[in-house]
Amino acid sequence: MSHDHRPTPLPTTPSSTQPAFSTTRACVTFDGECVVDEATLSIAPGEFVAVLGENGAGKSTLIRALLGLVPLSHGNVRIHGTPVEGFRDWWRIGYVPQRLLATGAVPMSVREVVASARWGPASRFRLPRKANQESQRRALEAVGLWDRRDARLDTLSGGQQRRVLIARALATGADTFVLDEPTAGIDSESQERLAETLGALRDAGDTVLFVTHELGALADLATRAIVLGHGEHGSVRYDGPPRREELAHHHAWHHSNELGPIDPTPTLMEG
Amino acid sequence: MSLLSYDFMQRALIAAALIGVVAPLIGVFLVQRRLALLGDGMGHVALCGVGIAFLVGAAPVPTALVAAGVGAVVIEVIRARSRTAGDLALALIFYGGIAGGVLFTSLAGGKSSAALNQYLFGSLSTVAASDLVWLGVVALVVLGVLAIFGREIFVMALDPDVARTQGIRTTGMSMLLTVLAAMTVVIGMRTVGLLLVSAIMIVPIAAAQQLTRGFRTTAVVGVVVGEISAVLGLVVSFYLDVPPGPSIVFLSLALFAVCAAIALPLRRRHNRLAASPAPHSSARS
């Protein structure tokens, strides 16, 4: 897919040379237990970063902290150069949460969920624009769900609902994407399609940061891997190019059997 | 129609028409957030406001509005801190509301106790012209705020984390929704009554979602069901000489039963269709 889901070219902001995300000695503590410890990271615009690590290594917590969704007990986080508490350019962010959306209380259509991607303070007094509908169509086509656009969300399978979430993030028109386990529960054909879609984002210069358990087509695209764990020197156990021997050393994938199809041979790293 | 020749019926019908539109539009968000019983609690708190109004001789509608508004803010502040404490606090405030309402009304003496019944279950004959102005203004405010903030409330109810990454202030939106529910309760207290006003928020949505596939259509069908129930229920109560609240709610429940009866065979057919082919085949284009 080409990267034309975005209706208008993005304005170049003064902060475009700033890191998309940067943290300085960030710590997140839940009930006195350190989940993310001393994480110092800088992710440049245009990077395609895989966040790996065992269950409980703090992967989700780290990216939630990057988005300001969990409070830090120490350190700081900046998005595009702005401290996360003061960050206002949320239109730049497309987020796919790990948890599926709450469904079943009131029916909602796939299209409504995707349309909601651009609803926020900035669009408060604005009427829906035609360009947005076009980006919604492209986003749903990119995940292969355009023909289910009028279906009730809760009639879709878990994997399909996750694809709706991904389409929602694509339809934001963002330039910085954060995806928490985007491949969980998704069949291999859809995973390849997803890799293709996110690859197009990378080629267009967007920043993509994703958490994954699975070393499939998506992880092959990564230009950088961050492996989390609990070590003496903080949560970041490895940060660098996705090389086979480095990641094997850090046991990046030996545990994850519960999340869908797993290729038994790691295909992520080509030296 | 002969009943339109009565001024009080004209006013009651206008009041019913207002609540028939506004209540389901708030209710659809309450159901989505799984707060279907919040309206009930707001009704109890508003009752306390009515009791205070009797006691001090103030106008019941604005006093109830203030009481319900304050209650809404307190509930949201407590809930923002702790979900379990919020649940308990909700219960305490609700009990306090209804106990206070009856207590203050009884202390006020005179005809107040008889009047209390009219606020609990609605009344045809007591919608004053000044009330109507209040109800109209409040209804306009609720609709206006929904038009501006409804989409953000929708995203918040969908997923608070996602909403925050779109720059939406989720605690603020949650507060806003609860305050709107409190205002809606006050709009409905004259015609449907404070004990049953929550039903006209929730039951039309429950009826609508039997038949709909989208949020927007659920809201629209809910308004149609709410409007039919409110206006027709009022007419029925005129002829049967019963309080309007119970007849309005009974009618909406009947409409729910009709919608559910229509939906049942549709859903069975849908399930059969969904079960037969490979579940993913339709997703590929």
From TrEMBL, chain A:
Kindly indicate whether the keyword Nucleotide-binding belongs to this entry: yes
Keyword Transport carried by entry: yes
Quote the Pfam families the UniProt record gives. ABC_tran
SUPFAM superfamilies, per database record: P-loop containing nucleoside triphosphate hydrolases
Q: Write out the ranges of the annotated region (Disordered).
A: 1-21, 247-271
**Keywords (A to Z) from UniProt:** ATP-binding, Nucleotide-binding, Transport
Q: Which GO terms describe its molecular function?
A: ATP binding; ATP hydrolysis activity
Task: Please state every residue range assigned to the domain named ABC transporter.
Answer: 21-255
Q: Which family does it belong to?
A: Belongs to the ABC transporter superfamily.
Q: Which PANTHER family does the record cross-reference, listed alphabetically?
A: METAL TRANSPORT SYSTEM ATP-BINDING PROTEIN TM_0124-RELATED
Which protein is depicted?
A: Unannotated protein
The species this protein belongs to is freshwater metagenome
Automatic annotation (TrEMBL), chain B:
Q: How does the record classify its membrane topology?
A: Multi-pass membrane protein
Keyword Transport (UniProt):
no
Which GO cellular component terms are attached? ATP-binding cassette (ABC) transporter complex
UniProt cross-references to Pfam families, sorted A to Z: ABC-3
Q: Where in the cell is it found?
A: Membrane
User: Which chain regions cross the lipid bilayer?
Assistant: 12-32, 44-75, 87-108, 128-149, 170-188, 194-212, 219-240, 246-266
Protein name stated in the entry: Unannotated protein
Q: Which organism is it from?
A: freshwater metagenome
